[in-house]
User: Fold these one by one.
Assistant:
Number 1:
Amino acid sequence: MPELARDEQQNSAAARASAHAAEATDGKPRSRWSSHTTFLLASIGSAIGFGNVWRFPMMAYSYGGGAFMLPYLIALFFAAIPMVVLEFALGQRLQRGHVALVAHIAPRWEGLGWATVVGTFLSAQYYQTLLAYCLVYLVNAFRDPQPWAVEEAARSLSESSSSLDGAEASSGLQPGSGEAGGETEADAALAAVRSFWREEVLQVSSGVDETGGLVGPLCGWYALVWAVVCLGACDGASSIGALNKLLMPMPFAVLAAFFARAVTLPGAGAGIRTLFSPDFAAIWSPSIWVAAVSQLFFGVSAGLGTLTTYASFSPPSTPVGRSAIIVSLSNSAFSLFAGGTVFGFLGFISHTTGEPLES
């Protein structure tokens, strides 16, 4: 009986503590995720992004493919997962947004919390711009012929040859060196892609003395991206969770389509093997370890305030360790998937051009 009474007392105290923690700093009940799965989807969504698709393959390529993988996997378990555990634990325990959390821990350092918010906002500008570019290409992919097709580029180049010559000069290319002249199919394809990017997407002016004004289509897509972001965040955890349920499967589906295409190309196997073939001599370089840790911290959004804020919408009793492991492993699995896709295409390029993959 004494044990039962003591257990009831502890449960009652835990319930009171949980109810107290659920109150925000202004006394209103804190918003909650609809389920633990929604919290995991939102956290994985904050981790997975452009960095997985191009920064991870770039870092792996720069540091010798497989030579980068061993430090990366070690840093995953000894740096990234502990960091995510810490941020989840702080958010769930204190039940505050990032700025209020920092102010609660050390009032004098509240400015650090605001600096994180400003940094994250500026980073968001970069990502929203990239998403606007992606939408431009997505819409134009349904045109027939596609604007970056070789035949379409020939017409575009003939209409704006003087502008393209200026672009070649600014990029260190000589007019008639092949890119604009279309001496080979590869040269023509490169010129087509460059023409669409500079002439239609960016609408590059002739120089710094001519600003050219705002690019209407880009501004429209940029505003649309921000409207979706604001709509997703308007109702706290509820709207963020709903948006993640809708959008989270999309990167996996798109990447799976690219991967399926990559593995059917000749030479893809050699490229993928390069990614997973370690060079043990290279792992003694300190720079490769710094690169692995920075890639992981960048990937899981450590130190940006996102994880602490998301965790604050979860009940304090939510398992922290398991959630951190799921989020970190999902981020790394997506990076490896993207790396295999990119290295598959690199292997195909190497096979087609006859140049070594390292060059």
Number 2:
Amino acid sequence: MAPITPHTLGVHKILKHIPLNAIFDLPAKRRLAKAVNIADLRLCAKARAHKMVFDYLDSGADDEISLRRGKDAYSELEMHYHILSGIKPPLDLRSKVFGCDVDLPFFACPTAGNRMFHWEGETAAAKAAEHHGTLYGLSSLATTGITEISKVHSGPKVFQLYVWKDRELVKEVLAKAKEGGFNALALTVDFTWYGNRERDIRNEFTIPPKYTIKQMVEAIKKPAWTYDFLSHEPYNYACINSDVPADSLASFVANQIMPEFDWKDAEWLLGEWNGPAAVKGVCRPDDAIRAVETGFSTMWVSNHGARQLETSPATIDVLPSIREAVGPDVEIIMDGGVQRGTDIAKALALGADAVGVGKPYLYGLAAGGAPGVIKALDILRVELDRAMGLLGTGTVDDLKKRGPGLIKRRGASARDYPDRYAFERGYGGGVI
């Protein structure tokens, strides 16, 4: 028998007609308006979201060493700029990804369960991608359906898929993605076991939250998030089966994830999709070469946001070796640790064709829905434009062509993190 909750009692059907969220969200809107960088958006998200939801978004695996290294690695890369380059604004940030034209060389990565951060969920990120004319990535564990996303985003889209056991389920999901106008597929291969996220364990994280005294106290502290949660429909995994409630994530993953999925299974999947496809989770050159031989068109260098294998390498550190292994003609996407537009510039210079961002846009989503995601991408766009201008590269193609000579590594320094509060701010910025 299902537990009695406000949703089972139908409270959300009443509350949705009482627009108190406009009042509860006033402080969040003020904070969002003052944010000037991604670290600020992180603080905005922390101030609005339930503690266990924010920590789920903000955390990494085990001791979070890879999470910290993923950010630190960019600070060890210096930008050796050219002078008197003869370029002037506006710069050309246009690029291609999965063979499609985009206005920005970076995009919002596919991430699961966006409605836990804000009631707009994946729709907010899709609207932001449409606004900026860039790629949108949808997770197969999304809480918004493929049809809804297609209504708000007309540009190129990539559908992310996990390694499920049930091939009929896989075929069904792929058919939905094709019908919904998704241009490419991304197979996530670094999620064969569920990572050890200890903040979640300490917070007694569940989707949706259990109605314990601890969670209710935390909910009272965050009225804007709580009213959103109570005044909207409960979450479900809309891309798989709208009848599957999101609170069954752990059991669904345990039943459906296929740890023994191998290269032969990948070949079968590529045959079913028959289109542009990325293998997401590459960190070794030999695996990248094998993936190209298997038929993947795109290498997606990723360590799952440092949420899976602790002490996995920073993606920006392995990116050059992946580029060297596959050569100049194979498309490479990279995500991981990106907090600044300068980080994106470094990734493009060292071999990436496109850069995915996860936490930055989710901070924006948790901070304020679609306006927050739009602002997150806009912050990164402005920072990337400035970095390219100061480097002396007027186009993304120019940055990629001249990149290896512009970026040089040096040892880490305590001066990279100038004060003891840097960790609390997410390493840099954060003055509100």
Number 3:
Amino acid sequence: NSVNLAFTQNLFNHGGCTTRIITHACRRNRFSFSLSNMSKDEKLHPETNSFGKSAVDVNVAQKVLHRDENAIHFKRRKIAREGFKNLHVVLDFDHTLTSSFTVGGERCHECHDIIHNIGVACANAGDDYDDEWTTFREEIDRMWSDAEAGLHSGGLREWWERFNEIMVRHNFSRENLILAVDSANTIMRPGACELLDLLKRNNVRTTIVSAGIHDVIEECFKRRFGVDLHENVRIVANVPVWDKDILQGWKGPLIFSRNKAEVLNALGYCSKDDFMKLPKNIILAGNSVGDVDCLHGITHECNLTFGFLNKEATDDSSALALSKFQENYDLVECGKDADFGYLTQFLSMIENQSEH
């Protein structure tokens, strides 16, 4: 698909066939439905809810690029009609729930950046920045250089395995982890707190799927964001194994940026036996093409996907990235200040609908 920032807003209004079939294939099930029975008014107003009232503010909707407004409209109506009890929200953590850049323009630390900066964290706490942490940083830097040079024969998996092994070898402690989190520049993406609060208020099943570090994510929520995750939230990430607060190893399976579906499948998210118990619908948000692959590891019928392209499409490279995003996500928002406004407004509409 060629990149065209204007066509998505006008595509449906140009007319076309009256029936469109949308087919979603999950690894273990297939689901299809038709839009032929939609009224003309419903088709021409993809941003209205079942009551004909505006579901998404015009200013919010204009920032978001649509892959197929007709399909998106049907997905939204299905999700809204079947409500929160049939909804599963799947979220990436680094640069999705968190911002990609700070207010001052610095790139926000991801989970592994936070650990990498342990020496700075110790210095900020008044501890000695000794040879141990100098060596630790040098090993991590060398590992990153090897990855950039294509020297990892084991691919992405090897990068994660080496990082985990270095942390164990340097006797990384819980105290180190907390110091590192406290010294990070990581902040939440605008609207993320409101989104999580809405999901908590309505007890919506939520899975945070990250190739980062489970305990770093937990401490970020508690210490940096002041967010109390509700009991229906599960964090699927790399889990440290501690002994007397010293890191001893990692609980499997290893999760990295390209095997999220495989891990979710191994954890039972794509079980035929549980199909009737699992929510039918998924809303997924991520910041990479790999995040969309999570859908292949979770049994469901219908999905609405939202991608954060954390840059503007101003050159050939970023335009190509946008093209790939639009091939894989239903909705895409570009830029460093992209927020959760679209999703929170849509979910607020469902919440208001359920109260009446």
Number 4:
Amino acid sequence: TSCETNNRTWFHFSVSHATAGRVLTFVVHNMNSQNRLFKHGMRPVWRALPSRPQWERVLHPVVAAGTKAEDNFTIRFRHTIESSETHFFALCYPQPYAETCSRLAHLDALFGLPPASAEIMPPSRLGGGDTAGECDALPRTPQKCEGLEEETRKGGGVGVLTAADGLVEEASVRCASHGLPCRRPPGVYYMRELLVRSLGGRRVDLLTLSGSDGMLEEEEERLEGLFPEGRPRPRLFRDKKVVFVSARVHPGEVPASHVFDGVLSFLLREADPRARRLREAFVFKLVPCLNPDGVADGHYRADTRGLNLNRVYLDSSLEAHPSVHGVAEVIKQLHGRGELHLYVDLHAHANKRGCFLFGNALPSAQQVENVLYAKLVALNSRWVDFNGCDFSARNMSRKDRRDGKSKEGSGRVG
């Protein structure tokens, strides 16, 4: 279709009715050349549902073949089937849209918030008509977000699911509270808002998290076209700067979701003095999934229409890029109030190893603080490679090799 892209890396599939003990060989064709990943020993992951919900690396090494020039890259790997259950395989540890829904539903119940609407609203019901053009990939009937906890399903249920979808839903429910508190931490303020609906009608949520100290009676101002549920806005706080964290604008970069989950879990720790001090000093604005359509549909870098949403921050619109537009408007509001302290957009990289930060080239005084933050993160985490960080002006305007889009339109630069 006109929305097709050349990003072909992500895979996630299931195998049913295989005999226990049988060795299956998988060959994945038509991939982008990701030889750098596999030559360093990367292997796909697998799990069997319902008995083994945790993902593990396949035991056998991957054999990669083909070249980028000839566009014939393939990988081959083997796996021994351990039971008659359905086995799932993926490029790396997935985090489906259903699991994000489940985790947020767990927190809603924990903090006594009303259940969030799980319905996927098709474009016709959002009032904007079908904005997909020739890409007829948007849902046409209401569905349900898979994996919500039972107490949030009030008279609900889910849409038509395959057997494999049902297994994934059940696993998402069981894993929803992993790393999250099992009771409401005292002194913590938490609010979940529907920032906007994606083109496919899925939720793009904005979380507000802080300590309850310094909380005012006033609420944040509304923004035109955003927060369609009409619920009360979060409370304002006295003398607290805002840290904004977003993830998953590129659907296939699932490590971003895992880092996001770690950040959220850490900030909710009741007994950790570091988490408590952060809540006392800052308000955290968190967007778990910027591209829910791409995640749900299994894309690698694009949304439903084949767009790289991390290149449209300078000229986004509510009609064409609702999630990016919503985030940009919130950022402008925070900056206008003089409250924005730090902006972090979480990604993953297929050609670089380790953990690192990309930052902007700023005027000298600001740049010292910019680079110092990365250095402090590296000093406090053995996983962060400071030498792998990049704060150059060149990395702010570099164009993508595939589509020629400049990084000037990314969230970090724009």
